[in-house]
Amino acid sequence: METGTQARTWLAPAKINLALHVIGRRPDGYHLLDSLAVFTRFGDRVEIGLAEHDEFMVSGRYAAGVPLDGDNLAVKARDALRREAGARPTPPVAIRLEKNLPIASGVGGGSSDAAAVLNGLARTWGLDIDEAGLARIGLSLGADLPMCLRARPLIARGIGDELSRLKDFPALALVLVNPGAAVATPDVFKALARRDNEPLPPLPRRLDFHAVRNWLETTRNDLEPVARSIQPAIGEALKALNKADAAFARMSGSGATCFGLFETGNVAKRAAIEIRGRHPDWFVAATRSMEAGAHGQD
Question: Does residue 218 sit within a domain?
Protein backbone atom coordinates (compact mmCIF):
# COMPACT_ATOMS: atom_id res chain seq x y z
CA MET A 1 0.00 0.00 0.00
CA GLU A 2 1.23 3.47 -0.80
CA THR A 3 1.46 6.33 1.64
CA GLY A 4 0.32 9.62 0.15
CA THR A 5 0.26 13.19 1.40
CA GLN A 6 -3.02 13.98 -0.35
CA ALA A 7 -6.05 14.02 1.96
CA ARG A 8 -8.61 11.37 0.99
CA THR A 9 -12.24 11.01 1.94
CA TRP A 10 -13.86 7.81 3.14
CA LEU A 11 -17.57 7.11 3.43
CA ALA A 12 -18.81 5.96 6.84
CA PRO A 13 -22.13 4.49 5.73
CA ALA A 14 -25.25 4.06 7.83
CA LYS A 15 -25.66 0.45 8.95
CA ILE A 16 -29.26 -0.71 8.63
CA ASN A 17 -30.41 -3.85 10.43
CA LEU A 18 -33.12 -5.08 8.08
CA ALA A 19 -33.83 -7.83 10.61
CA LEU A 20 -32.43 -8.31 14.12
CA HIS A 21 -33.21 -11.35 16.28
CA VAL A 22 -31.89 -11.62 19.84
CA ILE A 23 -31.26 -15.34 20.31
CA GLY A 24 -29.30 -15.62 23.56
CA ARG A 25 -26.97 -14.05 26.07
CA ARG A 26 -23.40 -14.89 27.04
CA PRO A 27 -22.30 -15.18 30.69
CA ASP A 28 -20.40 -11.88 30.28
CA GLY A 29 -23.66 -10.07 29.47
CA TYR A 30 -23.16 -9.68 25.70
CA HIS A 31 -26.27 -10.56 23.73
CA LEU A 32 -26.16 -13.10 20.92
CA LEU A 33 -27.67 -11.77 17.71
CA ASP A 34 -28.79 -13.01 14.32
CA SER A 35 -29.06 -10.02 12.01
CA LEU A 36 -29.15 -9.13 8.34
CA ALA A 37 -27.46 -5.78 7.83
CA VAL A 38 -26.93 -3.57 4.79
CA PHE A 39 -24.95 -0.34 4.41
CA THR A 40 -26.16 2.75 2.61
CA ARG A 41 -24.63 5.23 0.20
CA PHE A 42 -25.64 7.97 2.64
CA GLY A 43 -23.56 8.39 5.77
CA ASP A 44 -20.88 10.35 7.56
CA ARG A 45 -17.68 11.25 5.72
CA VAL A 46 -14.15 10.99 7.08
CA GLU A 47 -11.29 12.95 5.52
CA ILE A 48 -7.76 11.87 6.45
CA GLY A 49 -4.52 13.59 5.55
CA LEU A 50 -0.98 13.81 6.90
CA ALA A 51 -0.40 16.80 9.20
CA GLU A 52 2.19 18.40 11.47
CA HIS A 53 0.36 17.10 14.55
CA ASP A 54 -2.68 14.95 15.24
CA GLU A 55 -5.97 16.79 14.80
CA PHE A 56 -9.61 15.70 15.05
CA MET A 57 -12.34 18.05 13.83
CA VAL A 58 -16.08 17.61 13.37
CA SER A 59 -18.54 19.45 11.14
CA GLY A 60 -21.99 18.72 9.77
CA ARG A 61 -25.61 18.78 10.93
CA TYR A 62 -25.02 16.54 13.96
CA ALA A 63 -21.56 17.80 14.98
CA ALA A 64 -22.77 19.38 18.23
CA GLY A 65 -23.20 16.08 20.07
CA VAL A 66 -19.86 14.57 19.06
CA PRO A 67 -17.02 14.41 21.65
CA LEU A 68 -13.71 15.73 20.35
CA ASP A 69 -11.44 13.94 22.83
CA GLY A 70 -10.44 10.36 23.57
CA ASP A 71 -14.07 9.42 24.22
CA ASN A 72 -14.72 9.53 20.48
CA LEU A 73 -14.60 6.11 18.85
CA ALA A 74 -12.83 7.53 15.78
CA VAL A 75 -10.01 8.87 18.00
CA LYS A 76 -9.86 5.52 19.82
CA ALA A 77 -9.56 3.81 16.44
CA ARG A 78 -6.61 6.04 15.44
CA ASP A 79 -4.83 5.33 18.72
CA ALA A 80 -5.54 1.57 18.60
CA LEU A 81 -4.16 1.28 15.06
CA ARG A 82 -1.06 3.25 16.05
CA ARG A 83 -0.47 0.85 18.96
CA GLU A 84 -0.90 -2.11 16.62
CA ALA A 85 1.62 -0.60 14.17
CA GLY A 86 4.31 -0.65 16.87
CA ALA A 87 7.63 0.51 15.42
CA ARG A 88 6.22 1.11 11.94
CA PRO A 89 5.89 4.82 10.99
CA THR A 90 2.52 6.38 11.86
CA PRO A 91 3.01 10.11 11.28
CA PRO A 92 0.51 12.67 12.63
CA VAL A 93 -2.81 12.93 10.79
CA ALA A 94 -5.68 15.39 10.52
CA ILE A 95 -9.02 13.60 10.71
CA ARG A 96 -12.08 15.60 9.70
CA LEU A 97 -15.46 14.01 10.40
CA GLU A 98 -18.56 15.30 8.62
CA LYS A 99 -21.39 14.12 10.89
CA ASN A 100 -24.47 13.62 8.73
CA LEU A 101 -26.10 10.82 10.73
CA PRO A 102 -27.98 11.42 13.99
CA ILE A 103 -26.19 10.33 17.16
CA ALA A 104 -27.36 7.28 19.17
CA SER A 105 -29.80 6.47 16.40
CA GLY A 106 -29.45 2.73 15.68
CA VAL A 107 -27.52 3.03 12.42
CA GLY A 108 -24.00 2.37 13.73
CA GLY A 109 -22.75 5.90 13.07
CA GLY A 110 -19.94 5.99 15.64
CA SER A 111 -18.83 2.46 14.75
CA SER A 112 -18.91 3.26 11.04
CA ASP A 113 -16.85 6.42 11.64
CA ALA A 114 -14.26 4.37 13.52
CA ALA A 115 -14.23 1.71 10.78
CA ALA A 116 -13.62 4.41 8.14
CA VAL A 117 -10.72 5.71 10.25
CA LEU A 118 -9.20 2.21 10.54
CA ASN A 119 -9.54 1.56 6.81
CA GLY A 120 -8.37 5.04 5.84
CA LEU A 121 -5.41 5.17 8.21
CA ALA A 122 -4.21 1.70 7.19
CA ARG A 123 -3.93 3.09 3.65
CA THR A 124 -2.58 6.50 4.67
CA TRP A 125 0.12 4.96 6.83
CA GLY A 126 0.83 2.17 4.34
CA LEU A 127 0.31 -0.54 6.96
CA ASP A 128 0.17 -4.13 5.74
CA ILE A 129 -2.79 -5.20 7.89
CA ASP A 130 -5.39 -7.50 6.34
CA GLU A 131 -9.16 -7.50 6.84
CA ALA A 132 -8.94 -10.00 9.70
CA GLY A 133 -6.34 -7.88 11.49
CA LEU A 134 -8.45 -4.74 11.22
CA ALA A 135 -11.52 -6.68 12.40
CA ARG A 136 -9.61 -7.84 15.49
CA ILE A 137 -8.64 -4.24 16.32
CA GLY A 138 -12.20 -3.14 15.60
CA LEU A 139 -13.76 -5.74 17.89
CA SER A 140 -11.62 -4.42 20.76
CA LEU A 141 -13.41 -1.08 20.28
CA GLY A 142 -16.98 -2.34 19.86
CA ALA A 143 -19.08 -5.28 18.69
CA ASP A 144 -20.38 -3.35 15.63
CA LEU A 145 -16.92 -2.55 14.26
CA PRO A 146 -16.17 -5.78 12.32
CA MET A 147 -19.39 -5.52 10.29
CA CYS A 148 -18.86 -1.79 9.69
CA LEU A 149 -15.36 -2.56 8.39
CA ARG A 150 -16.94 -5.02 5.95
CA ALA A 151 -19.69 -2.54 4.93
CA ARG A 152 -21.35 -5.02 2.56
CA PRO A 153 -24.66 -6.91 2.82
CA LEU A 154 -24.08 -9.57 5.49
CA ILE A 155 -25.50 -11.82 8.16
CA ALA A 156 -24.00 -11.07 11.58
CA ARG A 157 -24.13 -13.65 14.35
CA GLY A 158 -22.55 -14.07 17.77
CA ILE A 159 -22.16 -10.64 19.36
CA GLY A 160 -21.96 -9.23 15.83
CA ASP A 161 -18.49 -10.57 15.06
CA GLU A 162 -19.35 -13.76 13.13
CA LEU A 163 -19.96 -12.46 9.61
CA SER A 164 -21.25 -14.13 6.47
CA ARG A 165 -21.16 -12.05 3.28
CA LEU A 166 -24.28 -12.08 1.08
CA LYS A 167 -22.80 -12.04 -2.42
CA ASP A 168 -26.04 -11.78 -4.39
CA PHE A 169 -28.03 -9.42 -2.19
CA PRO A 170 -29.62 -6.63 -4.26
CA ALA A 171 -29.23 -2.88 -3.73
CA LEU A 172 -32.40 -1.58 -2.08
CA ALA A 173 -34.07 1.83 -2.29
CA LEU A 174 -34.53 3.06 1.27
CA VAL A 175 -35.82 6.07 3.17
CA LEU A 176 -34.26 6.61 6.60
CA VAL A 177 -36.29 8.55 9.17
CA ASN A 178 -35.33 9.64 12.68
CA PRO A 179 -37.87 11.69 14.67
CA GLY A 180 -35.15 13.58 16.54
CA ALA A 181 -35.00 11.10 19.40
CA ALA A 182 -31.89 9.44 20.81
CA VAL A 183 -32.20 5.98 22.36
CA ALA A 184 -29.48 4.49 24.58
CA THR A 185 -28.70 0.96 23.40
CA PRO A 186 -27.94 -0.40 26.91
CA ASP A 187 -31.38 0.76 28.11
CA VAL A 188 -33.08 -1.16 25.31
CA PHE A 189 -31.19 -4.41 25.94
CA LYS A 190 -31.71 -4.10 29.70
CA ALA A 191 -35.49 -3.85 29.24
CA LEU A 192 -35.79 -6.96 27.02
CA ALA A 193 -38.31 -9.41 28.46
CA ARG A 194 -36.96 -12.35 26.42
CA ARG A 195 -33.49 -13.09 25.07
CA ASP A 196 -33.89 -16.59 23.61
CA ASN A 197 -35.88 -15.86 20.46
CA GLU A 198 -35.89 -17.85 17.22
CA PRO A 199 -33.02 -17.19 14.77
CA LEU A 200 -33.52 -15.77 11.29
CA PRO A 201 -35.31 -17.98 8.79
CA PRO A 202 -33.29 -19.07 5.71
CA LEU A 203 -33.08 -16.54 2.89
CA PRO A 204 -34.84 -17.38 -0.38
CA ARG A 205 -32.57 -18.71 -3.14
CA ARG A 206 -33.47 -15.92 -5.56
CA LEU A 207 -33.03 -12.47 -4.09
CA ASP A 208 -34.83 -9.51 -5.62
CA PHE A 209 -36.90 -6.66 -4.18
CA HIS A 210 -40.09 -8.71 -3.79
CA ALA A 211 -38.33 -11.76 -2.37
CA VAL A 212 -36.49 -9.60 0.19
CA ARG A 213 -39.68 -7.78 1.15
CA ASN A 214 -41.61 -11.04 1.59
CA TRP A 215 -38.77 -12.53 3.62
CA LEU A 216 -38.66 -9.47 5.88
CA GLU A 217 -42.32 -10.04 6.72
CA THR A 218 -41.27 -13.35 8.34
CA THR A 219 -38.56 -11.69 10.49
CA ARG A 220 -38.42 -9.22 13.39
CA ASN A 221 -36.43 -6.58 15.14
CA ASP A 222 -36.63 -7.92 18.69
CA LEU A 223 -35.49 -4.53 20.04
CA GLU A 224 -38.31 -2.56 18.43
CA PRO A 225 -41.15 -3.15 20.93
CA VAL A 226 -38.92 -2.19 23.88
CA ALA A 227 -37.46 0.84 22.09
CA ARG A 228 -40.95 2.05 21.18
CA SER A 229 -42.02 1.82 24.81
CA ILE A 230 -38.99 3.92 25.82
CA GLN A 231 -39.36 6.38 22.93
CA PRO A 232 -42.93 6.54 21.51
CA ALA A 233 -41.77 8.86 18.68
CA ILE A 234 -40.46 5.72 16.94
CA GLY A 235 -44.08 4.77 16.30
CA GLU A 236 -44.62 8.18 14.66
CA ALA A 237 -41.65 7.60 12.34
CA LEU A 238 -43.00 4.20 11.28
CA LYS A 239 -46.44 5.70 10.76
CA ALA A 240 -44.94 8.40 8.51
CA LEU A 241 -43.16 5.78 6.39
CA ASN A 242 -46.29 3.68 6.02
CA LYS A 243 -48.33 6.78 5.13
CA ALA A 244 -45.75 7.46 2.38
CA ASP A 245 -46.50 3.98 0.97
CA ALA A 246 -43.35 2.15 2.06
CA ALA A 247 -43.50 -1.47 0.91
CA PHE A 248 -42.05 -2.39 4.31
CA ALA A 249 -41.08 -0.33 7.37
CA ARG A 250 -39.15 -1.23 10.51
CA MET A 251 -36.85 0.25 13.15
CA SER A 252 -33.10 -0.27 12.66
CA GLY A 253 -30.86 -1.52 15.46
CA SER A 254 -31.85 -0.19 18.87
CA GLY A 255 -33.54 2.88 17.33
CA ALA A 256 -34.77 5.45 16.93
CA THR A 257 -33.98 5.52 13.18
CA CYS A 258 -36.51 3.63 11.06
CA PHE A 259 -36.26 2.57 7.44
CA GLY A 260 -38.80 2.20 4.68
CA LEU A 261 -38.26 -0.09 1.71
CA PHE A 262 -39.34 1.24 -1.71
CA GLU A 263 -39.38 -0.41 -5.10
CA THR A 264 -37.36 2.28 -6.92
CA GLY A 265 -35.06 5.15 -6.05
CA ASN A 266 -37.47 7.70 -7.53
CA VAL A 267 -40.35 6.45 -5.40
CA ALA A 268 -38.08 6.63 -2.34
CA LYS A 269 -37.09 10.23 -3.17
CA ARG A 270 -40.74 11.27 -3.52
CA ALA A 271 -41.58 9.62 -0.21
CA ALA A 272 -38.68 11.42 1.51
CA ILE A 273 -39.89 14.78 0.17
CA GLU A 274 -43.40 14.00 1.42
CA ILE A 275 -42.21 13.02 4.91
CA ARG A 276 -39.86 16.00 5.13
CA GLY A 277 -42.73 18.30 4.20
CA ARG A 278 -44.81 16.97 7.09
CA HIS A 279 -41.92 16.78 9.57
CA PRO A 280 -39.31 19.43 8.68
CA ASP A 281 -37.40 18.93 11.96
CA TRP A 282 -36.84 15.21 11.45
CA PHE A 283 -33.85 13.52 9.87
CA VAL A 284 -35.05 12.14 6.52
CA ALA A 285 -32.79 10.68 3.81
CA ALA A 286 -33.54 8.76 0.61
CA THR A 287 -30.66 6.45 -0.25
CA ARG A 288 -29.70 3.05 -1.65
CA SER A 289 -27.99 0.16 0.04
CA MET A 290 -24.62 -0.93 -1.32
CA GLU A 291 -24.24 -4.16 -3.25
CA ALA A 292 -21.70 -6.81 -2.33
CA GLY A 293 -18.97 -5.33 -4.54
CA ALA A 294 -19.31 -1.69 -3.44
CA HIS A 295 -16.65 0.04 -1.33
CA GLY A 296 -16.48 3.22 0.64
CA GLN A 297 -13.64 5.36 -0.70
CA ASP A 298 -14.20 8.43 -2.84
Answer: yes
Provide the whole-model pTM.
0.94
Residues 110-122 have pLDDT tens digits of 999 999 999 999 9
Q: Which of 34, 144, 161, 222 is flagged as catalytic?
A: 144
Q: What is the residue range of 210's domain?
A: 173-288
Q: CB–CB of 195/24 below 8 Å?
A: yes
Annotated catalytic residue 298:
no
For the chain, what is the domain count?
Answer: 2
User: Which of 120, 149, 165 is the last residue before a domain boundary?
Assistant: 165
Buried b / exposed e across 58-75, counting CB within 10 Å, b at 16+? beeebeeebeeeeebbbb
Active site residue 239: no
Give the tens place of pLDDT for each residue, 39-56.
999 999 999 999 999 999
Catalytic residue among 15, 34, 113, 222: 15
